[in-house]
Amino acid sequence: MSIATSNGLGTLHAARHPELARQLAVHENRLTQGLTEVLGEALLGAGLRPTIPLEDLARLLTALFEGLTAQELTSGPDYAGHHLTPHVISALTEPVAG
Questions:
Q1: Of 15, 20, 76, 88, which has the maximum CB count within 10 A?
Q2: Tens of pLDDT along 32-66?
Q3: What's the pTM value of the predicted model, to 2 decimals?
């Protein structure tokens, strides 16, 4: 079974199925590693550095995105929460001293 997304339903299903939980954990680790690399490059290119460990920021942004997406799915298309992401990034980064 392949894991296309780590949404809430997948997580709930994985809680009851150990093999799926293992696959989901592998998927989430790969996602975090990839996002950590891309995020680090993007922040550096913008002259910013995270104020928390970069991997923690990547995990936080993933959780925020997944939570906002779930909220949008349950609240309908009028729910607009993804605009919050830049505010979180701004709050958890600072200019690179140069």
A1: 20
A2: 999 999 999 999 999 999 999 999 999 999 999 88
A3: 0.77
